[in-house]
Amino acid sequence: MAQAAAHDHHDEHHDEHHEHLNFFQRWVMSTNHKDIGTLYLVFSLLMFFIGGSFAMVIRAELFKPGMQLVQPYFFNEMTTMHALVMIFGAVMPAFVGLGNWMIPMMVGAPDMALPRMNNLSFWILPFAFTLLLSTLFLPGGGPAGGWTMYPPLSLQSASLAYVVFAVHLMGISSIMGAINIIATILNMRAPGMDLLKMPVFVWSWLITAFLLIAVMPVLAGAVTMLLTDKYFSTHFFDAAGGGDPVLFQHVFWFFGHPEVYIMILPAFGIISEIIPTFSRKPIFGYKAMVFAIASIAFLSFIVWAHHMFAVGLPLGAEIFFMYATMLIAVPTGVKVFNWVATMWGGSMTFETPMLFAVAFVILFTIGGFSGLMLALVPADFQYHDTYFVVAHFHYVLVTGAIFAIIAATYYWIPKWTGNMYSEFWGKMHFWNSVIWVNVLFFPQHFLGLAGMPRRIPDYNVAFANFNMISSIGGFLFGASQLIFLGVVIHCVWFSKKKATDRVWEGARGLEWTLSSPPPHHSFTVAPVIHDEELAHGHVED
Amino acid sequence: MKLDHRALETGQEQRLRRARRTAAIIGIVAFVVFVFSIGQMLWLQHHPQIHQHQIDSLMQ
């Protein structure tokens, strides 16, 4: 904090000072938003491949009916760890990394408001995930009761204490990240950068940060109660002691459903930056887009029990949660139609970020529609705990959140590094990803409708064909991501093609007024805002 | 006469001071949510009739 103020007095020395830092000082002691953003993104990529390797084990085991490669307990460990690593290790840190890199540049600030806390919130994560992943090597094995940690099953796990402590650490990291983002956006904007002139990505992160503040402590509370139930003889969720396991589900999903939106709202923000750039038009309905994000965030707090229709809720509650869930389709529909309207009549080009953004709009909408099907109480009784649910949330999270993160990387990496990536290999990555991800997840709808349950290592031979197709799609989708790794490595270290400051012809916003790569501290003097330079400078009332 | 330090602050220092205050307020809110989420369950444990009533209403 004080450091940022001090930096401000010594603007001219920033980049010289930065040159003299050794590796340890630059990366471990860093208080710079760009370096910490890079750390987050590298960590996220590592977790993406670790979580992906767990998914490969799952798909390999399910390649054919019968037990193939692993023991059932290990299979359950894989499904549990895949989810925990992908949600808390890959998707969330990736968005925090993107936020760290872009928010100060987008609002005209020199850095994040609380740079030392920024450092701490990143460096907690490697310890949290070392702790979590180490449980796989413990004598009792890792967690195997699913990422939702429902008692009483989760209480039987020997590694519960490790998992709970890891979740606490991740939660603390997320909360500190959220505090920093809110403090930066509300206080560090350049004079003239009104709230309703901010890029949609910044808006989406502001709202997401409030969601994090509201629900991460609830998760921390829920897992703390699990811990005391196991080790300190409390009976919060133990029916024999007067507790109630279903109460855990209520508390967990009060966190869990907003968590889904924590993973998708920044993605909405990213897509709302990319589509206008490559359509060479301002976004259609800027205010409506902001209000839609806020509405989705509000609704996320009153839909949690749609994950629990099968536990036996009273009819009134089921009807309430069904309609509340279906209501989310309204603001989400506003967003999808506004993206299409932005493209409509635009002078469109299809560079790799735009390809991923267009795929996002189409494939995320498929995930949204299957979500509407699951919102129907009578239908959910049939679909609950089947592969239909697996197909639904992977369309939302893989072709939604992860496609948006990949799109953002292609969009901003020339700005970050000063080098252009290989467009040919970017497109190769796109077409391989978009084809194989559908081969991977689309057949899972049919499996679910036919009644194949999720989280099982073996299945009826009737499901054999679709599972084999899904596994082939899985292996090739996984392999396609190695292209992404290659493109990123090439762009950072080997690319000869330099990026211009604006990078993309249609790009608007303060971040594009900086050099590529940008200086160590973004705006050491608050920029003078020219409305025509902003993506949303002329907001109509 | 007491010197008004705030009057001497630059715009950037002002923004940072406000940012620290915002961060403190949000941090306190997060902690209160954490305590409340456990506190309400503890309260239910010590009021078993109300807890039972809640379970009945959820499971009827």
From TrEMBL, chain A:
Q: Which segments constitute the Cytochrome oxidase subunit I profile domain?
A: 27-530
Q: How does it sit in the membrane?
A: Multi-pass membrane protein
According to UniProt, the reaction catalysed is: 4 Fe(II)-[cytochrome c] + O2 + 8 H(+)(in) = 4 Fe(III)-[cytochrome c] + 2 H2O + 4 H(+)(out)
Metabolic or biological pathway? Energy metabolism; oxidative phosphorylation
Q: Say if the entry is tagged with keyword Nucleus.
A: no
- Please name the CDD domains in this protein's record: Cyt_c_Oxidase_I
One cellular component term from this protein's GO annotations in UniProt:
respiratory chain complex IV
Its lineage opens with: Bacteria, Pseudomonadati, Pseudomonadota, Gammaproteobacteria, Lysobacterales
Q: What is the protein name stated in its UniProt record?
A: Cytochrome c oxidase subunit 1
Query: Which gene is the coding source of this polypeptide chain?
Result: ctaD
Q: What is its main location?
A: membrane
Instruction: Please tell me whether the keyword DNA damage is annotated for this protein.
Output: no
The transmembrane residues are 39-60, 80-99, 120-140, 160-188, 200-227, 247-271, 283-307, 319-341, 353-377, 389-413, 434-452, 472-494
Q: What is the similarity comment for this entry?
A: Belongs to the heme-copper respiratory oxidase family.
Cite a single Pfam family from the UniProt record.
COX1
Top-rank lineage group of the source organism:
Bacteria
Q: Name one GO molecular function term.
A: cytochrome-c oxidase activity
Subcellular location field: Cell membrane; Membrane
Protein function: Cytochrome c oxidase is the component of the respiratory chain that catalyzes the reduction of oxygen to water. Subunits 1-3 form the functional core of the enzyme complex. CO I is the catalytic subunit of the enzyme. Electrons originating in cytochrome c are transferred via the copper A center of subunit 2 and heme A of subunit 1 to the bimetallic center formed by heme A3 and copper B.
UniProt-listed Enzyme Commission number(s): 7.1.1.9
GO BP annotations, alphabetical order: electron transport coupled proton transport; oxidative phosphorylation; respiratory electron transport chain
Q: Which UniProt keywords apply?
A: Cell membrane, Copper, Electron transport, Heme, Iron, Membrane, Metal-binding, Oxidoreductase, Respiratory chain, Translocase, Transmembrane, Transmembrane helix, Transport
TrEMBL record, chain B:
Upper classification of the organism: Bacteria, Pseudomonadati, Pseudomonadota, Gammaproteobacteria, Lysobacterales
Source domain of life: Bacteria
Species whose genome carries this gene: Dyella psychrodurans
* Name used for this protein in its record: Uncharacterized protein
Q: Which residues cross the membrane?
A: 21-44
Reply yes or no: does the keyword Membrane apply: yes
Keywords carried by this UniProt record: Membrane, Transmembrane, Transmembrane helix
